[in-house]
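tl;dr need the bound structure. longer version: we got a ligand (nicotinamide-adenine-dinucleotide) that a collaborator sent over and nobodys looked at where it sits. i said id run it. heres the input, straight from their email, havent touched it
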Amino acid sequence: MKTILITGGAGFIGSHVVRLFVNKYPDYKIVNLDKLTYAGNLNNLKDIENKPNYEFVKGDIVDGDFIHKLFEEKQFDGVIHLAAESHVDRSISNPTEFVFTNVIGTVNLLNGAKNIWKDNFSDKRFYHISTDEVYGSLGEEGMFTEETSYDPHSPYSASKASSDHFVRAYLDTFGLPAVISNCSNNYGSFQFPEKLIPLFIHNIKNNKPLPVYGKGENVRDWLWVVDHARAIDVIFHRGKIGETYNIGGFNEWANIDLIKLMCREMDKKLGRPDGESEKLITYVKDRAGHDLRYAIDASKIKRELGWEPSLQFEEGIEKTIDWYLENTEWLENVTSGDYKKYYEEQYVKR
Ligand code: NAD
Ligand code: TYD
C-alpha cells in the first residue's frame, strides 16, 4: 500500500483531488494535510471522510519541525502539493503571508521528502501544483508554453514562481524526483466566493453589485476543476520526472463577456426578466498590477499523456451555477463570520 500526502486537500482544487484519489485508488492511503485557513473547509469532503483509505491531519506547512516529524512518522511514497495562499487580491494586501506559506511551506515539504527518501528515489514522486500566473501577462496574441520565461507580477504569482524554482533546484541539486504543472483559472463546485465566478454567482443571487475591475477587458482561460483533478492524476502517475506540464481549457473569456454570460444564465435560472442581472454590473477601480491576458498552450499534456478537457465551458458554467444555487448551506457557511469583514475591506471602500 502506498501512502500519498496531499497538501491543501480541504481547499477548492485539493478537495476535488482528494475525492478522486480516495475513490479511484482504494489501495493508496491518502493523507490530507491542511491548516484549515479561511479557504479550507472539511465540509468539502463530507462524502469521503469516513473512507478507510483517507486520513485528515490538521497542520501548518510553514512549521518545519512539524513537517519533519510528519514525514518521519508517515514515510510518504508520494506528495501532491496544493496548499497555498491562492488569492491575488489578498496577496496585494498581505504579501508576507504568501512568502511564508507558498515559499517556506514548499521548501519545508521538499526537505521532508529529501530527508525520508534519502537517495533512494525509486517509485517516489514530489508533484508541485502551480499556476499559469508565473508566466506573467500576454498581449492579444500568443500562448504560454512550458518554455515561456517566468515574469510574475503579483505577490501571489511571485511566491508561486519562487516555489517552482525551489522545486527545480531540489531536482537539479539533490536529484529529488519532482514534476510540476502550471494550470489556468479553475472553476466549479467548492470554490471560495472571493474568486470571480462564485463571488459573482453569490452576488447576482443576492442582487448585490458585481464589482468589475477596470473595464472588464482582462482575459482568462477557464478550466473545469474536475478536469484539473483528472490532469493531476495523469501527471502524478505518468508524467516524466523533471518535466513541466501546462494545463488549460483552450477556453479564453474576457471578464465582461463571462460576467454577461453568467448574468443571462442566472436570469433564466432565477426567473428574472432578460437583462435584469446585468444591471448589477458596477465598474470599480482596477486591481493593481492586473495581468491583461493568460492563455495556456496545453498541447504537450495532450500529446504526451493523452489528457484534454472533458467538458465544454457552456455546460460547465451551467453545472457550476446550479451547484451554488443548490448548495445554499455551504455558501452561507463560508460567507458568515470573517468573510463579511474581508468583503467590506476589499469592496466597500473601493
Ligand atoms: P484554496 O485557497 O481554495 O485552497 C488552499 C488550501 O491550502 C486551503 O484548504 C488552505 O486551508 C490550505 N492552506 C493554506 N495555507 C496552509 C498552510 N500554511 N499549511 C497547510 N495548509 C494550508 O486554493 P485552490 O484554488 O484550491 O488552489 C490550490 C493550488 O492550486 C494552489 O497551489 C494554487 O496556487 C494552485 N492553482 C490554483 C488555480 C485556481 O484557479 N484556483 C489555478 C492554478 C493553480
Ligand atoms: P480571480 O478569480 O481573482 O482569479 P485570478 O486573478 O487569479 O485570475 O479573478 C479573475 C479575473 O476577474 C481577474 O481578471 C480579476 C477579475 N475580477 C473582477 O473583475 N472582480 C472581482 O471582484 C474579482 C474577484 C476578480
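gonna send this back to them w/ a short note. DSSP finds twelve helices and twelve strands in the chain.
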